[in-house]
Every structure is written in C-alpha cells, then in structure tokens.
C-alpha cells in the first residue's frame, strides 16, 4: 500500500474512532454531526489543494512548488523532486545540444540541414559564408530559391549524391571553389556538407603549371642539343662550325644543369622540416663572397660596391642565406645593363638587421612585384633566358627567408632600378657595437 492510501486510511480511521467515542459520550446525533463536519472540512481542504495543484500544472515555474501539511505536503514534495529531476535532464540535453552546435560551428566545413521539402532547418556560419545565406532570415526557405546555380539545382534534383559537386566562384569575393556533398538521412531529410578546396585547387594548378614550365624549360635546350648533334653527325662541318656548335651545346647543357640544381635546392628546402641553425654568420666574409661572385658574373661590366655595418649580427644557416643572397645579387647583375651600379648593404634599423641589394637596372612594373617569387615567373622571358636565369632564383629566396622568418621587401621603378631588402626578425639579428674595431686596433669578435 502506497503512502496516499495509507495516510487516507489513517485519517478515516481516526475520524471513525473520534465519532465512536463521541457516540458513547454524547449520543448518536452529536457524533454524526461531528463526522459530517469533519468530512466536509476534509473535502474542502482537498478541493483547495487540488486547485493549487491545478494552477501549478497549468503554468509551471521551476522553484514555485507550494507547501502543505500532511498528505498534500507529501504530494508537493514528490512533485518538486520530479520537476527537479526533469529540469536536470533538460539542462543536460541543452548542454549536449549546445556543445554539439559549438562543435559544428568550430568545424571548417559547412553544415546545412534540409527538411523533407528541401527547406532550410539550420546551418552553421561556414555554410552561410559559402552560400551567402543568413540563418535567421532564410530558415524555412526552400534551398533552390536561395541557391539558384543550375549545377546545384540539377545535383539536388537528380539525387546522385555519390560524388561531390564542385561549385566555383563562391564565397564573399567570388573566388572560392566549394565541394558540396549531400547526405540523405531520417525521413527524406538531407544533410548538405560543404568544404572549401580553393587552396587544394590552387595547389593542383601550381603543380600543373610547374610540370608544364619544367617541361618547357627543358624542351628548348634539349631541342638545341638534338639539332646540333644531328647536324654534326649527318653533315660535314668545318672545324670552326663544329667548335661553335659544341660551345652552344655546352651553354644549353649548363642551362639544364643549373635548372636541375635549382630544382634540387627547392626540393630540399621544402622537405626539410628542421629549423635552420642559429649560429652567428660572418657577414664580412659572406658579403666578400657575394662581391667576388658579382664581379665574376659581371666581367667588369658593372660597378659593384658593398657597405656593411660590422656591428650587425645575423644568425642562421650560412649556406642557405648565401644561396638566397647570391640569387639576389646575380639577378641584379643580369638585369642591369653594362655600366650600371650594384650595391650590397647590411644595416640595422628599428631593431632589425637588413640586408639589401640595389641596382640601377631596368626596374620592375608594380603589377609584377607580387608574383616575382613564383616559380618560373619572369617579367621578361626572353631576357631571362639570354642571361642564363632559370626562373627559380626568387622562389629559392622566398623559401630560405621563410625558414628564417625573414621578410623580402621589393621596391622598384621602371627605368631607374630596384632594391631588394631582407628584413630579419629580432630573434635572428642583433647589434653589438663592441664588435666594431676602434681606430688602430685589430677587430675583435663579439661573444
């Protein structure tokens, strides 16, 4: 027997015993009257508590459970405990729902949910950006009324969802490539997943361009070599012509060798995940090598000068930086007409070491500067081939400086020359005035 029946039976038994006692003391009429009044009072009390319970159930509010005595107190206590347990369960479900929404919002993929009529039920911020939607404004709108691209409408209509749909010119600036995949679930509902593959597409395009450029760069010298070899083999040529052909073949073979060497350097830089060393570099010796190489390449056709501050300290991988600086210097020589000036400088400004190469060459138009570090990108292809360039020099510079967390800043004016400045971060540069030798004293090495 539960507590309700037990307490109700106890109240009735108590009233019966009280009425029986009164019957023996005062007679049947007073006993019956007291019994009726007690039952009526009990009924009214029950009706009052039922009315209170009705109000609680009609407009429930957590924490507003009334209190009462006796049996109704037990009812309200159990009701309060039930509401508390339900509230805990609801809060747990809400927390799980919130965490689920936060997890979807944190995803780099777009998520969009459609009902059985292809109307939007919910979407995350990434999906809004991919499709140009607004979750609050566009909810319960049919997806094909908002995304009217023919390929998407056809993809949704045909229901062939095994392969994703590629949608180009998407996003805020219409430059993104979005992969869309639809997954049916539930009762004719659909889950639309989107993924931005712009970088992947660009990488694939760069790979195709790279293969095409390498093939093109190798095709010309191979064609020259093949033609000269066939000429020497099949036709009688004079000693003078044969030597001239061999010299031209040597030039083309050296060109291919330089191309392969630069490709190997790039591959090594890209595959090396270890950070470069942080040893101090003897910049005076390094700049001396650069000046010597520039004069050898120029063959007296340019005025090469160097101005370095011996107190400037640079730390890094000496061979990598020598390769990067060497490319900057050789480019300056190649693209500066005879009689021009090549300047190499090492300074310290705003707590940063700055290595710069300046020239009085042809200059570069502003629209070409952002693309100079791309592989095989040339402002003047014919001149680059004539000067022996491979089109990979600045790409090597870019990778070396990236490994050293340095910036390449280019300023140029057509017809007046260019300045390439390498700005090193504070953790790889410094200034040690004590390293500057005083007049009449031998140079000292800084600690």
Q: Radius of gyration over alpha carbons? A: 43 Å
How would you name the CATH homologous superfamily of the largest domain? Answer: Histidine kinase-like ATPase, C-terminal domain
Number of domains: 4
Low-confidence stretches: 438-447
Number of helices: 13
- The fold-level CATH name of the largest domain is Heat Shock Protein 90
Structural class of the helix and strand makeup?
alpha+beta
The pLDDT mean sits at 83
Order of helices and strands: HHHEEHHHHEEEHHHEEHEEHHEEE
Could you walk me through the main structural features you see in this protein, from its secondary elements to its overall organization?
With 447 residues, this protein is of the alpha+beta class. The chain folds into 4 domains: 3-100, no CATH class; 108-196, 2-Layer Sandwich (Beta-Lactamase), CATH 3.30.450; 200-271, Signal transduction histidine kinase, dimerisation/phosphotransfer (DHp) domain (Helix Hairpins, Orthogonal Bundle), CATH 1.10.287; 283-435, Histidine kinase-like ATPase, C-terminal domain (Heat Shock Protein 90, 2-Layer Sandwich). Helices cover 53% and strands 17% of the residues. A 5-stranded antiparallel beta sheet has the order 2-1-5-4-3, sandwiched between helices. A hairpin with a 2-residue loop joins strand 8 (341-349) and strand 9. It is elongated. It starts with a helix and ends in a 16-residue tail after the last strand.
């Amino acid at each position: 027997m539960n507590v309700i029946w037990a307490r109700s039976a106890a109240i009735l038994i108590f009233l019966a015993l009280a009425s029986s006692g009164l019957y023996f003391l005062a007679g049947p009429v007073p006993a019956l009257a007291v019994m009726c009044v007690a039952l009526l009072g009990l009924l009214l009390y029950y009706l009052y508590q039922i009315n209170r319970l009705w109000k609680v159930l009609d407009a429930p509010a957590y924490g507003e459970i009334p209190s009462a005595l006796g049996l109704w107190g037990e009812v309200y206590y159990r009701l309060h405990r039930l509401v508390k347990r339900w509230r805990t369960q609801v809060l747990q479900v809400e927390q799980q729902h919130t965490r689920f929404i936060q997890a979807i919002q944190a995803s780099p993929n777009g998520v969009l949910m459609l009902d059985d009529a292809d109307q939007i039920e919910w979407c995350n911020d990434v999906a809004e950006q991919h499709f140009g939607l607004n979750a609050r404004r566009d909810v319960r709108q049919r997806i094909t009324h908002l995304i009217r691209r023919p390929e998407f409408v056809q993809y949704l209509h045909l229901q062939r969802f095994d392969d994703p749909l590629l949608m180009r010119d998407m996003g805020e600036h219409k430059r993104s490539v979005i992969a869309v995949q639809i997954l049916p679930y539930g009762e004719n509902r659909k889950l639309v997943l989107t993924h931005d593959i712009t970088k992947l597409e660009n990488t694939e395009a760069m790979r195709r361009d790279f293969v095409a450029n390498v093939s093109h760069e190798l095709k010309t010298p191979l064609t020259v070599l093949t033609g000269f070899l066939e000429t020497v083999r099949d036709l009688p040529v004079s000693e003078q012509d044969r030597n001239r052909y061999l010299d031209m073949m040597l030039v083309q073979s050296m060109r291919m060798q330089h191309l392969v060497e630069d490709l190997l350097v790039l591959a090594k830089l890209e595959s090396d995940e270890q950070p470069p060393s942080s040893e101090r570099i003897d910049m005076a010796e390094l700049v001396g090598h650069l000046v010597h190489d520039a004069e050898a390449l120029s063959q007296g056709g340019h005025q090469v000068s160097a101005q370095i501050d011996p107190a400037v300290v640079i730390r890094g991988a000496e061979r990598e930086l020598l390769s990067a600086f060497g490319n900057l210097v050789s480019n300056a020589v190649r693209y500066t007409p005879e009689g021009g000036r090549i300047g190499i400088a090492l300074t310290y400004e705003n707590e940063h070491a700055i290595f710069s190469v300046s020239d009085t060459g042809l200059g570069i138009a502003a629209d070409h500067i952002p693309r100079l570090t791309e592989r095989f990108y040339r402002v003047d292809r014919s001149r680059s081939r004539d000067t022996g360039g491979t089109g990979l020099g600045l790409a090597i510079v870019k990778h070396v400086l990236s490994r050293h967390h340095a910036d390449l800043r280019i300023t140029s004016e057509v017809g007046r020359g260019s300045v390439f400045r390498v700005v090193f971060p504070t953790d790889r540069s410094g200034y040690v005035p004590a390293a500057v030798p005083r007049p009449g004293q031998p140079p000292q090495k800084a600690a």
